[in-house]
């Protein structure tokens, strides 16, 4: 690289402008054009007049429009990183020859200057002007005609339209339209004479494997031209009843073009039947049997074939109820790959585990001997998995198939936890057959869906157990008992429960303030065990805060609202009462002091800094007697400002 004497961008642009008088192309139109480009210089190389003597090793042009050469001095540009003007000597460049330059042709020249342009030169003998580009320009433009390769190919295809015909005006127009949508590197969609095929063998679904002798036309990126690949294996799909070219026919063809699986169209001259010519990727996207598009390309999953297979199997089973048969068939036809098939299951295929009824009133554990139907993606077929553990849920009073019954089944289908439906032949009761995922979503005892799947918490079971436990305690106040029961049934969290706590369970440690006491609580704490799904007691020994509610002998709505606010913040265990004073007290968790003031019990305005507005105001008020300004009005003013803090 050559570094020039002028380094500053602005100075360099000024020198370039002052240098206009030192060069000329000999054509005022060209000079004005170059000067305009230089004055508007922003980045890339400076557009300049390049003496022909600077161009070395010019390749023979012949009939071509473009050629290559070496520019001895090289392009000039400003390096922003180095902050200096630099030339690149002995640079390979592309030359584009121009003829008969006029005012009108300047616009054409501008159209050529899309990227990588360096300047203009002129042959001294023929006086032909030359546009000079970087070496990458020739990779995008045809050396013969100077057009982009895509336009060049398009022109070639247009010129070739007269060399073929399908003998159908509509089809010819369609093929021509598709060819002109050419993708630079794609194979060309075309009309293919039937006599170019060598038939190998017949396949299913009106499809034939054949050899295309002449082969497909495609763009060779190395040679920059259209070439043929001979002896290509192809699939011929016969379109019977296709003597008429309809919009539906053409839309189908275009859909294959979007997948790049089709070479073109042909016609059997004997039968006058059109046929589509596919490449070897066709069966990666479309079913060999029926020609439908795969729902899943990786596993070659054809939904239509599986639907046909299931429909053919409908005659091999029945529930004995037309409405239920229709429902099961409908669900099966909505089947998708990876799903286990929903089906009617004969009751005699189950081995019942009678012991399971001792622990689960709602469901019965069983072994399904024959096992569920899974879709095997390797064999591309349905197979059974024998001796599967299942859960049977009896739907009592279900001898009649109702909308409610079917809606319940649908809800289980959404969670993919159900294998099918069966019926006890003795009781005529229908039962649902679940897979092992059922117990991850639904309570084994009552069948309700878990409120919390992670902890497997069944709200209804907890409510039932809590209601059964109401007779085991009382606060001695009906209104308070009702409140505690109501709070328990709301179940704010799934372990610790809000409860009535006898005062004799506390060991007082020390008084903290007028209203608060630190104590030790020793008892068996009532909580909901998510593993056993029942209320249990565990040994609990921990520090708690007791907040005395003086003047609370009466249970008021204000009193109860205060308690409920603590419940929402998850800081309270329950409520108790000092039997001697008759005063109620709230029992708080240890985290209580992180949110509430130990002195006055108010909630902190700022929990992080434990800032209590009320205590700060009281402290300032108490300090009013320790100072005075001598004027009552001023005292009142400053006092109120201090209280606002």
Walk me through the structure.
The chain is α+β, with helices and mostly antiparallel strands and about 650 residues long. The protein folds into five domains: about 1-145, no CATH class; about 150-295, no CATH class; about 305-450, no CATH class; about 460-610, 2-Layer Sandwich (Phosphorylase Kinase, domain 1); about 610-645. The protein is built from 16 helices and 31 strands. Strands 2-8-9-7-4-3 form a six-stranded mixed sheet, covered by helices on one side. The protein has a six-stranded mixed sheet with strand order 10-16-17-15-12-11, with helices on one face. Helix 15 packs antiparallel against helix 16 (about 630-645). Residues about 640-645 have low confidence and may be disordered.
Annotate the secondary structure layout.
Blueprint (H helix, E strand, L loop, with lengths): L1 E2 L5 H10 L9 H12 L8 E2 L5 E2 L9 E6 L3 E5 L4 E5 L2 E8 L4 H10 L4 E6 L6 E6 L14 H12 L8 H11 L10 E2 L5 E6 L4 E6 L4 E4 L4 E4 L3 E8 L7 H12 L3 E7 L4 E6 L3 H4 L17 H11 L8 H12 L9 E2 L5 E3 L10 E6 L4 E4 L4 E4 L3 E8 L7 H12 L3 E6 L6 E5 L3 H4 L17 H11 L8 H13 L8 E2 L5 E6 L4 E14 L4 E16 L7 H12 L3 E7 L4 E6 L24 H10 L9 H13 L1
Parallel strand pairs: 2-8, 10-16, 18-24, 26-30
Antiparallel strand pairs: 1-6, 3-4, 4-7, 5-6, 7-9, 8-9, 11-12, 12-15, 13-14, 15-17, 16-17, 19-20, 20-23, 21-22, 23-25, 24-25, 27-28, 28-29, 29-31, 30-31
Helix pairs in contact: 15-16
